[in-house]
Design goal:
With about 220 residues, the protein is of the alpha/beta class. The protein has six helices and seven strands; from the N terminus they run αββαββαβαβααβ. α2 links the parallel β2 and β3. The longest helix is centred in the middle third of the chain and has 22 residues. The two termini are about 15 Å apart.
């Protein structure tokens, strides 16, 4: 069975835990599509009640020159405020859900005992962090996943687009057991099904000509 079918056909078990790295912060708006859409509609495929939990982390780092927005301290303060505001919005539209957001560097989780069933990154690997930065985040994802845990990355639009081949090589180097790359160009039906399941990003919905190379990468440990 393909990883795409495994994801789309599954029922999330009690105790399921998800980590989203780089959920987004100033100068970009936070976007946790597994929880709510850009229009605040709850994503009905994911239920984080009971013993299920979601954690979104972002350190507010603006990669690139955003000095016109103010000092690094001002940008960080604005990022922290936006993430806190997003947390309140999620709590309003998904009451009773075990969904938390932390303003912190994802690499701080490396020394934590926390382990997750799924790690997700949306428009992170291409966000001008370069090959080494992407590799470090993929390695971190591998390290914090439980055995047989799932990594989900997707790229829809970012300043420095990471092509499918680059992600494939990194995932293989790190040692993920199985992986599928699902591009909109080659597998539009499967891509759209995954986009519906995880919730479309604003770059899937609102741009008149979305990036033709959009893709998901699914990998298991």
């Amino acid at each position: 069975m393909s990883l795409v079918k495994c994801v789309l056909d599954r029922d999330l078990p009690d105790g399921f835990s998800m980590l989203e790295i780089g959920v987004g912060s100033y100068p970009f708006s936070p976007e946790s599509t597994v929880l709510i859409s850009n229009w605040c509609d709850p994503n009905l495929y994911f239920d984080f009640t009971g013993n299920r939990s979601y954690l979104g982390v972002d350190n507010g780092t603006a990669v690139g020159d955003y000095s016109y927005l103010g000092t690094p301290e001002k940008i960080a303060a604005e990022a922290m405020w936006r993430l806190a505001e997003h947390k309140e919005r999620v709590q309003e539209f998904r009451p009773g859900q075990n969904a938390d957001f932390r303003f912190q560097d994802a690499f701080e989780l490396a020394g934590s005992p926390e382990r997750f069933d799924e790690v997700m990154m949306s428009n992170v690997l291409s966000s001008m962090i370069g090959n080494e930065g992407a590799r470090a985040l993929l390695q971190l994802s591998y390290d914090v996943l439980v055995d047989s845990g799932m990594l989900v990355t997707r790229e829809t639009f970012t300043p420095q687009f990471m092509e499918e081949e680059e992600v494939t090589e990194l995932v293989k180097e790190i040692g993920f057991d199985e992986f599928d790359v699902v591009s909109h160009r080659l597998l539009p039906y499967e891509y759209d099904a995954l986009s519906d399941y995880y919730g479309p990003t604003i770059f899937d919905e609102k741009i008149s000509r979305p990036h033709s190379g959009r893709y998901f990468c699914l990998a298991t440990k």
